[in-house]
Design a protein that fits this description.
About 30% of the residues lie in helices and about 25% in strands. By secondary structure, it is of the alpha+beta class. It folds into two domains: about 170 residues, Fructose-1,6-Bisphosphatase, subunit A, domain 1 (Fructose-1,6-Bisphosphatase, Chain A, domain 1, 2-Layer Sandwich); about 150 residues, D-Maltodextrin-Binding Protein, domain 2 (3-Layer(aba) Sandwich), CATH 3.40.190. It starts with a helix and ends in a 10-residue tail after the last strand.
């Protein structure tokens, strides 16, 4: 039912966020690129006949004015909701959003940024704290055979066997961070090739599920909220995804919320997470009966083109993945404004 009622709507949500952000591509203003994406995403969400709750959004502890954790969105959250919605039949949904995944990529005109969201029934998405997460993504053929607790060398050998390849034919995406120096060294010594990225590991994780993307694994530590969004897509695609929360600043080295390992552990306990070292799989991070994922390219990427403007309009490419219909749809949209003189096809 979620796909039937919200499928087209969520495409338009990510499209509007991508278009707004792309207008700031290459201008060196990452905060503005993010801000306009947030505003556009929220505005479109609030036109949908739904009662949604943001479980992953624009900052867990800051004072984000829009799409903050716990914010309710949709027409059916308004005080006069009874005039527009049948509240007795209304499905409450949880929403995880990243209106501009890869703000630096947009600011500096680099590939791989996108507007992205995942939705499920209430309680169907893991409300990840704003911590970091050790991640392992791999193709469907290796699902359940690779394991985040195994070494990179072991996992590469397993992936190669599952895909009938040699390790030398594999490409592994890793975030370009000092914490990954040893990981990158091990991957290279095992024989695989490494693609270092500065930001945007959601796209990298999802690409593992698509043959022809030339990405065969994502390894390393990135943001936990984006891990949940990646897991939602990988659950629908049948790919392998595991995540383990990282709460020790000494491991992450930069940017971890919390002053100490002890304070971070207390934070997890306050959220009801009693096993801080638990390894979560995609079905646990996105456990809802129905899970939908949508993304729209802001700048060109492995899976989608970025926003392309022409006189009087723009063209976007989006990806919508559904566990309900077991589909992954690539949606090409031409947006026409002000009576365009031409409609750009390519």
């Amino acid at each position: 039912m979620l796909e039937t009622t919200l499928g087209l709507e969520i495409i338009e949500v990510v499209e509007q966020a991508a278009i707004a952000s792309s207008k700031w591509m290459g201008k060196g203003e990452k905060d503005i690129a993010d801000e306009v994406a947030v505003e556009a995403m929220r505005e479109r969400m609030n036109k949908i006949k739904m009662r949604g709750r943001i479980v992953i959004g624009e900052g867990e502890r800051d004072d984000a004015p829009m799409l903050y954790i716990g914010e309710e969105v949709g027409i059916c959250t308004r005080p006069d909701a009874k005039e527009y919605c049948n509240l007795d039949e209304l499905i409450e949904i949880d929403i995880a959003v990243d209106p501009c995944e890869g703000t630096n990529l947009v600011a500096y005109g680099q590939n791989g940024s996108m507007a992205v969201l995942a939705i499920s029934e209430k309680g169907g998405l893991f409300a990840a704290p704003d911590f970091y997460m050790k991640k392992l993504a791999a193709p469907p053929a290796a699902k359940g055979r690779v394991d985040i607790n195994k070494s990179a060398t072991e996992n590469l050998q397993i992936i190669a066997e599952c895909m009938n390849r040699t390790v030398e034919e594999l490409v592994v995406v890793v975030m370009d961070r000092s914490r990954h120096d040893d990981l990158v060294k091990e991957i290279r010594e095992a024989g695989a090739r490494v693609r270092l990225i500065s930001d945007g590991d959601v796209s990298a994780a999802i690409s593992c599920a698509f043959s022809g993307s030339n990405i065969h694994a994502l390894m390393g530590i990135g943001a936990a909220p984006e891990g949940v969004i990646s897991a939602a897509a990988m659950r629908c695609l049948g790919g392998h995804f595991q995540g383990q929360l990282i709460y020790d600043p000494a491991i992450v080295k930069t940017g971890l919320i919390g002053e100490s390992k002890e304070s971070n552990l207390e934070r997890l306990r306050s959220m009801g997470i009693t096993d801080p070292d638990k390894v979560y799989n995609a079905d646990e991070l996105a456990s809802g009966e129905t899970v939908l994922f949508a993304a729209c390219g802001i700048t060109p990427g492995t899976l989608m083109e970025g926003v392309r403007f022409f006189h009087g309009g723009a063209r976007t490419q989006s990806l919508v993945i559904s566990s309900q219909s077991s589909t992954a749809r690539f949606v090409d949209t031409i947006h026409m404004w002000d009576q365009p003189q031409t409609i750009q096809l390519k």
